[in-house]
Design goal:
Blueprint lengths: L5 H4 L10 H4 L13 H8 L10 H4 L6 H9 L3 H9 L5 H7 L3 H4 L12 H14 L15 E5 L3 H12 L3 E6 L7 H4 L9 H13 L2 E4 L9 H7 L2 E4 L5 E2 L12 E3 H13 L13 E5 L3 H12 L4 E6 L25 H4 L3 E4 L1 E8 L5 E12 L2 E4 L5 E4 L2 E4 L3 E3 L6 H5 L22 E3 L2 H4 L4 H20 L18
Pathway: Amino-acid biosynthesis
InterPro entries: DPD_II, FAD/NAD-bd_sf, FAD/NAD-binding_dom, Glut_synth_ssu1, Glutamate_Synthase, Helical_ferredxn
Keywords: Amino-acid biosynthesis, Glutamate biosynthesis, Oxidoreductase
């Protein structure tokens, strides 16, 4: 056990953020560099080393959290990194981006603030990179088998790294111009600087993984060609079909899906543009959708110099404490203030968009909304509550409905979809087509980064067993596993 009295004597402290006035002028991560290391060992010492560590249940990767908490408390950073990497290929991604269901399941969290598991995780991996403890792990021998991975998000990268280390020759196909999927172009730089992706890609290249960017399977290369070239295929193309808002005025200029808006800001940081083709500068911005993607739009709009930012959510405002319907150790729906929300703007709950209003040139100018409430379990509009708000840029951040079928990938392979529009798979993550597997949001539906990595690792085991008859690779989850929800 780290510190037997740590949870009694040490209060919860989290990473320090830079002043708002400073950070909205740049795209760097919002946290003060190095602010965690002076406090993180004591924070790790708050871990109770429970007899039954429910944090394991909260985390689909099965991270060995009490073990690396103990090493971090003792400042044995090398051992902590080894235990961290035993279950997670990319802890610097999850340590920055995961909403930490492990903390919701922390036993200490029953009646005290939970252990800062996410902060401990990111401290361990950052320390490991600084100490040059993260090295390529090339296979001892090659199997002679080849695997294509379609998509370079967290699921695709995890599957590719596991299969490469198992000795297979792996090629990752990415339709964008850079590797990373939504990590690259969906996550703003202020949440995770892309240097973290770049050095993982270099590690994977050194291990033997090959990457092909600017290639869309279904359009630039057919499924038939891919199956001829490779012994197995992993589809990790994500759930990229965005949910739309079919109301009057949707066709007006200035209304964009979040994933049309966010990547352009990242491309500015990459040096592709001097200024984003879609920008919030000087505009009244409305973000429709109250989730993490919506918050990303809010933070991006602040940095682009928006005149105002309003975020709309159709559901009621969540509470700040667990309610009886979301008991520990489930992941509760709580009111969350992200770094983007700290920077300004207004959040409006229980409202629905009725239509958009434009000017003579076809540019959106106003958004009309109405308050809603649940009556007998049904969402109902409240008469007399209609109003309009200025809206010169609107981003739709309402989630995703399934994988892309327009590019021909699904039809060319002949993949069967389940009742939710995701690619169907069996217990080994295999599709209905021999040798074709699916991992991540393409099979699970829109989910969290930690589930994507777990899916990639599990699918890799299925592929390895298909190619060789057996596998020693771990499979942390089954396709049917779900989050600890009520």
């Amino acid at each position: 056990m780290a510190d037997p009295k740590g949870f009694l004597t040490t209060g919860r402290e989290v990473a320090e953020t830079r002043p708002v006035a400073e950070r909205v002028r740049d795209w760097n991560e919002v946290y003060v560099p190095g602010s965690l290391l002076p406090i993180i060992s004591k924070q790790a010492g708050r871990c109770m080393d429970c007899g039954i560590p429910f944090c394991h249940n909260g985390c689909p990767l099965g991270n060995l959290i009490p073990e690396w908490n103990d090493y971090a408390y003792r400042e044995d950073w090398s051992a902590a990194s080894e235990r961290l990497h035993a279950t997670n290929n990319f802890p610097e991604f999850t340590g920055r981006l995961c909403p930490a269901p492990c903390e919701s399941a922390c036993v200490l969290g029953i009646n005290q603030p939970a252990v800062t598991i996410k902060n401990v995780e990111v401290s361990i991996i950052d320390k490991a990179w600084d100490a040059n403890d993260v090295k390529p792990q090339a296979p001892d021998r090659l199997s002679g088998k080849t695997v294509a991975v379609i998509g370079s998000g967290p699921a695709g990268l995890a599957a590719a790294q596991q299969l490469t280390r198992a000795g297979h020759t792996v090629v990752v196909y990415e339709r964008a111009d850079r590797i990373g999927g939504l990590l690259r172009y969906g996550i703003p730089e202020f949440k995770m600087e892309k240097r973290h992706i770049n050095r993982r890609i270099e590690q994977m290249r050194a291990e033997g993984t090959k990457f092909r960017t600017g290639v869309e399977v279904g359009r630039d290369i057919t499924a038939t060609d891919l199956r001829k070239r490779f012994d197995a295929v992993v589809v990790a193309a994500g759930a990229t079909t965005a949910r739309d808002l079919p109301v009057q005025g949707r066709e007006l200029n200035g209304i964009h899906q979040a994933m049309e808006y966010l990547p352009l800001a990242n491309k500015v940081v990459e040096g592709d543009f001097v200024a984003a083709p879609i920008t919030a500068e000087g505009k009244h911005v409305v973000v429709i959708g109250g989730g993490d993607t919506g918050a990303d739009c809010v933070g991006t709009a602040h940095r682009q110099g928006a005149a105002s930012v309003t975020q709309l959510e159709i559901m009621p405002k969540p509470g700040e404490e667990r309610n009886a319907g979301q008991p520990w150790p489930t992941f509760p729906m709580l009111y969350k203030v992200t770094s983007a929300h700290e920077e300004g703007g207004e959040r409006v709950y229980s409202v629905s968009t009725t239509h958009f209003e434009g000017d003579a040139d076809g540019n959106v100018q106003f958004l009309h909304l109405i308050e809603v409430e649940f009556v007998d379990g049904k969402l109902t509009q409240k008469p007399g509550t209609e109003r309009k708000i200025p809206a010169q840029l609107v981003t739709l951040a309402m989630g995703f409905t399934g994988t892309d079928v327009a590019n021909g990938l699904v039809s060319q392979f002949g993949l069967a979809l389940d009742e939710r529009g995701n690619i169907g798979r069996d217990a080994d993550f295999a599709t209905n087509i021999d040798g074709v597997y699916v991992a991540g949001d393409a099979g699970r539906g829109q989910s969290l980064i930690v589930w994507a990595i777990a899916e990639g690792r599990s699918a890799a085991r299925g592929v390895d067993r298909y190619l060789t008859g057996a596998s020693s690779l771990p499979a942390p989850i089954r396709p049917t596993d779900r989050s600890l929800l009520v």
